[in-house]
Known about the structure:
binds iron/sulfur cluster; binds zinc ion; globular; two-stranded antiparallel sheet; 13 helices; mainly alpha
Amino acid sequence: MSEKCFCGSGLEQSQCHPDIHKDSVIAKTYNLYNRLDNAVNEYFQKNDIEPYCRAGCSYCCHDFFFISDIEFDIIIKELEGWSKNKVNRLFQKVESSWKKFEKKYPMVVHDFQVQKFTSTQLMNELDRADIINKTSIPCPFLDKEDKCSIYNVRPFICRSFGTTKITIDLGVVNYNICELINTQGQYDKNKFAEATSLSDESKDLVDTIFDARTNGRHYKRGATILYHAYRHFIRYKQGFNILNHDYKFNKPIGEYFRYMASKIGK
Length: 266
Ligand code: SF4
Ligand code: SF4
Ligand SMILES: [Zn+2]
């Protein structure tokens, strides 16, 4: 029997994402993205609100934020559809951005590499060093027109930032609300969509995956998008198949966790 795809495209799964198991961690993440987008769009339409965010507005894409490993795997999968030239251009950009970042913040790079901090400690550290919101280094996926080149698979934070109450409810206004929105220290809470329960769900998903995968040794939110991209760039340059994630894509979620647990000796 044919089934509609978990990603919410409305197509049959066999026509849309035939190579991803419908109960995999990846499918769950696609589904969460889709429900978040729907919640945001429905809220804006129902309340006749003009969203703050629009195409070509990219201040928030120069920020320093964390995404999970799973979210980055989805992005990498998207690159399968890119030409080799386009992937090469992307990785050139990643390399030059990483060099700039390394030069500007050598201690942060060091801390990433030794994985010394939890993400909260690291965020506090970055805040003290006045880095948050001020890296001025664009996300490598921002294109020449200041648009997101991976829009359909952009991470949860890129979908919720500036559009939902999730970021407001996190409570740390200085770096959780876009400065373009919060210019006078004021913003209208009613102009942000309610999607808080989805945020809890995303946190649960990310935390569970994180625990199963790393047994507490890495950052909770994985790494910044630039660091993820840089790690993949290195492996790509060394000739590794950067899409070697069978368990995440092709197996149901339970099997994936059992596999990861066996790897960390639980
Ligand atoms: S969060 Fe701010 S910078 Fe980002 S798209 Fe929205 S208004 Fe623009
Ligand atoms: S993934 Fe896209 S939306 Fe998110 S920071 Fe990068 S360019 Fe911006
Ligand atoms: Zn699909």
